[in-house]
Amino acid sequence: MDLRQLRYFLGIVEHGSISRAAEALRVAQPALSLHLKRLEEDFGCQLVLRTARGVVPTESGRRLAQRALTLIESMDGLRDEVRAVESTPSGPATVGIPTSLGPVLTVPLALAVRRAHPLIRLRVVEGLSGHMLEWVLSGQLDLALIFGAKEMGGLNTEFVAREQLHLVGPAADPLLRGRTAIPFAEALALPLILPGRPHGVREEVEHAALLARGSVNVAMEIDALEQIKALVAEGCGYTVLSERVARYGAAAGRLTGLPIADPQIDRTILLAHAAGRPMPVAARAAHAILRGLLADLTVDGAWK
Asked: For this UniProt entry, which segments traverse the membrane (predicted)?
């Protein structure tokens, strides 16, 4: 027994005729008769009587018709309620954004979500990209932007952009002046100010050093992006950033950078959510808005 059979039965009772019900329901008459027969077999009793004037329900049929009408109205109401949830997202949505992407995404995302879906309670968490990965997998975040090119178990990911990493130093640094790139081996030997693990840039640099059979000269570990740039601007060392990140912030005007070459180091930005856990309606709405913002900020897989 299913709702379709109950709807067919109500049609038969309403029209008092299988042929007229079949026409109204747009079902072949033999098929409708078969549905009625199966329904009677399911309940183990006769539900209608065939008379010269048409079809009339038995006492059991009348009871079924009353309950079926209530059940179908309830299901229709439930369907409308669920559709309303989808069409008017509400409730909490938690989005993780790495610190390096916060200046260009956090405020635009918050404004767009507020304007499009005022009933959503958005929470944006900024932090290290490595932590974003852990928090998505643990369920603390509904979705997040993460860095990494390799397959990540337990995640559904969408490609956002790919960016080349640069060696960044003070604006007046003679080592960087008049050059178009710096070899990776030379960059490794310089005193670097880097975030601690599991920051994405730190892992990218160490992975490339491992492949090149070199080691990273870490002079300082600072888990704060703007403070790293301020220290580099003061001449305390160098760091590794994308060009996009280097040109934002209070210290940006006092910094310069060169692309790292031989080998070039790229990092991939992905939008991720947990594979085994469906996103709530509010999170899906925030996800759609975030995708739109990212599409406006990138072209052909690179930042504008």
From this structure: none
